[in-house]
Write a structure and sequence with these properties.
The protein contains 21 helices and 8 strands. The radius of gyration is 29 Å and the shape is elongated. It has a 4-stranded antiparallel sheet. The protein has a 4-stranded antiparallel sheet with strand order 6-7-5-8, sandwiched between helices. α12 (352-362) packs across α21. Helix content is 63%, strand content 7%.
């Protein structure tokens, strides 16, 4: 009796020890989690690789006298034409700006040919690389340059656009977290139908998110991992989405075990033993896929790899340790009013997934062919994706800097309105200046600062910013000016596009290879992993195709983010395989019991279908939260991933993978031992299996 009592007391102490350990971990990471936003960088040049011309220009400009230049354009406009009083007002305001701040040169007004607009280029080295000081400078200029008496005054240019983008990214953290939490809470309430149970996984996901922020800050300080508004936002989405998926699987299994095991501690131990391997394998696959982003040349993509991996691992740790501890401490009453009583039996009913499985099982080849044709047809929509997204089109609501650029584009169609920055060796600066002026498409070129062996040359193109004409001018300058670097806002966008194209060629094969190898090791088969990988690639193509069908024609988007293809591929392949593992792992369990392969596939669908559907809905909903954000890159990424997850959950995983498994029978496990005919028990059919109680 004494030994048994001691054992029971020891088991009761374990959840409290786990809870205490998590409190200690949070206490240690808390000072760092709040600092993550301090190291977030969202300049275009921060996204680029070190080898890009634009990056070299920015680095050299930092070493020139005065450091990095913040460039703005103050735009004065009146529809009926500027009056003498308007010009006097403009001169007074520009004079006040020059008196209040240290500018690189006295701004000179450039009137438009139609007389409606007057622009003043304003440049200052006052802020240097300090983004907070840059934002203060831009806002000070906006406070001085005020509209009055029908005269429209807007502040645009590279510096103003960066400030507007920074304000948008800084505003994302709160709304993104609250909206994600609200969406997850609503879905958990609908799934669990309990007034209390939904709070537990949601609170644990919030704790995991806080932990991931502290770890991400540590990676930045220890290894220089880049942190952007996009990567930190995606990390939060992954923590809540993937973490809730793991919670759904665990709670469903725990509920089942509570019906046959009396003590909650023992029931949780059985639940962890049953679903733990699948959760560990799926999270490991997602982490491996995301980690492949380290091979990307683009800083933003490369930084998203570690941050995404941190989010997945923190979610895994919290859901496999803290969540079980809290559930055990709360006991069966946390499931009220649908409390799973010891010894009770759940009602067996024919579920939606049983019906789906039956239809896939009757004509597997027909279902497989029809699904493949549908996905292929949808994928063709990718050919209709709009071109590369321009910097000014990146916002869902128009900030002042974008409005200024639009005004300039209409008033000065014959010339560029933002400079192309050329950095040339000082001993060849005169020759570079002459060559730049002779380059086709160049309107003007002027010599600027010199220092540290380099000289700055400011070039104005004869074409509008980020137009085909300006792009050709930038490429001509790079071809002609050997030994020099060509940068600036438009050149940065060009480098972003080229680097993303290079990264797709490198990262996509790495992701496919790593995911395939992990699946082969996990499922001990070659055919089953190939089916899963082919399925998620088809889902990615179809989701991107649906984006092409709606982005321009329906939503009116002017362009597509160059990184959309790569990032959506990585997330959809990694997360899609996640659900495939849940399904195939259960199918393998049934096959190991001696169940006939086709029947094992249908049983796996019936028993995991509810969990996978719920998990897919939660994950799709969390990524769909991104579509409410004010940055078009996040809107497009959230849309494609959400659509892809829904396609994967309700079409590919349910019909195509199941029908392929039914059609191939034992060959699906080739060349493993399960591909061979068993000596005994191969044709038995098990008793009907109830849908997981947690989904009712």
């Amino acid at each position: 009796m004494g030994a048994a009592t001691t054992t029971i007391r020891g088991r009761r102490a374990v959840p409290w020890l786990v809870l205490g350990l998590w409190i200690a971990v949070l206490a240690l990471t808390s000072p760092f989690a709040s600092k993550l936003s301090d190291v977030q960088r969202d300049r275009a040049v921060d996204y680029l690789p070190a080898s890009a011309d634009s990056t070299q220009v920015a680095k050299i400009q930092d070493r020139l006298p005065g450091g990095e230049t913040t460039q703005m354009v103050v735009v004065y406009h009146r529809d009926g034409g500027l009056t003498a009083a308007d010009r006097a007002t403009a001169a007074d305001q520009i004079g006040e700006i020059a008196s209040a701040h240290t500018l690189t040169a006295r701004p000179e007004g450039v009137p438009s040919k139609d007389g409606t607009t007057l622009m003043y280029p304003v440049a200052s080295t006052e802020p240097g690389t300090d983004e907070e000081k840059r934002d203060q400078l831009v806002n000070d200029v906006r406070d001085i340059a005020k509209s009055e008496d029908g005269l429209s005054v807007e502040v645009g240019g590279e510096g103003a656009l960066a400030t507007d983008a920074s304000e948008v990214y800084n505003s994302l953290d709160g709304p993104l977290l609250y909206t994600t939490a609200a969406v997850v809470a609503l879905l958990l309430i609908l799934i669990y139908r309990s007034p209390f149970l939904w709070l537990v996984p949601l609170a644990v996901a919030g704790i995991a998110d806080y932990l991931s922020m502290g770890v991400a800050y540590g990676l930045n300080q220890g290894f220089g991992t880049s942190v952007s508004g996009q990567s930190s936002g995606i990390m939060t989405i992954l923590v809540f989405g993937a973490g809730t998926d793991y919670a759904l699987l665990l709670v469903s299994r725990y509920r089942e075990e509570l019906r046959r095991i009396e003590r909650p501690y023992d029931a949780m131990a059985a639940a962890l033993k049953g679903c733990g391997p699948a959760v560990l394998a799926s999270s490991g696959t997602v982490a491996a896929g995301l980690f492949c982003l380290l091979a990307a040349d683009l800083n933003s993509s490369r930084g998203m790899g570690p941050l995404g991996t941190v989010g997945i691992l923190c979610a895994l740790a919290a859901m496999m340790t803290l969540l079980p501890a809290i559930l055990v401490l709360l006991g069966r009453r946390v499931f009220w009013p649908l409390v799973p009583r010891y010894g009770s039996t759940p009602k067996v009913r024919r579920s939606l997934f049983a019906a789906m499985g039956s239809s896939a099982g009757r004509r597997p080849l027909t279902v497989l062919a029809g699904g493949a044709v549908l996905l292929g047809a949808l994928a063709l929509g990718a050919l209709n994706l709009p071109g590369s997204l321009k910097q000014e089109d990146s916002f869902t609501s128009k900030p002042e800097a974008v409005a200024a650029m639009e005004t300039l584009g209409k008033a000065y169609p014959e010339r560029g309105t933002q400079p192309i920055s050329v950095i040339a060796p000082t001993d060849r600066a005169d020759a570079a200046l002459a060559e730049a002026r002779d380059t086709p498409g160049v309107d003007s070129a002027t010599r600027g600062r010199s220092g540290d062996g380099w000289t700055e040359i400011s070039v104005i193109a004869g074409s509008a910013p980020q137009s085909a004409g300006e792009t050709a001018t930038i490429e001509d300058l790079r071809d002609r000016l050997d030994g020099s670097y060509v940068g600036g806002p438009s050149a940065e966008q060009l480098d972003l596009k080229d680097t993303n194209a290079r990264d797709r060629l490198v990262v996509v094969p790495l992701v496919l290879a790593s995911v395939l190898l992990i699946l082969i090791a996990l499922l001990r088969s070659v055919v089953a992993p190939l089916i899963l990988v082919a399925a998620v690639v088809a889902v990615w193509g179809a989701a991107l195709g649906i984006g092409g069908l709606v982005f321009g024609p329906v939503f009116g988007f002017e362009g597509t983010d160059p990184g959309l293809g790569l990032l959506s591929f990585v997330f959809l392949v990694a997360l899609g395989v996640d659900y495939g593992i849940f399904l195939m792992h259960r199918m393998r369990e049934e096959s190991l019991k001696g169940t006939e392969p086709a029947q094992a596939a249908l049983i796996a669908l019936r028993t995991t279908g509810g969990v996978i559907a719920s998990a897919g809905l939660v994950l799709a909903a969390t990524f769909a939260v991104l579509t409410s954000m004010p940055m078009l890159q996040l809107v497009e990424l959230g849309f494609v991933i959400a659509v892809g997850v829904l396609l994967d959950t309700f079409l590919v995983r349910t019909y195509l993978v199941t029908s392929a498994s039914v059609a191939l029978r034992r060959k699906v496990w080739w060349p493993g031992a399960l591909s061979k005919e068993p000596a005994v028990g191969g044709g038995e059919s098990p008793e009907p299996v109830a849908e997981p109680a947690g989904m009712r």
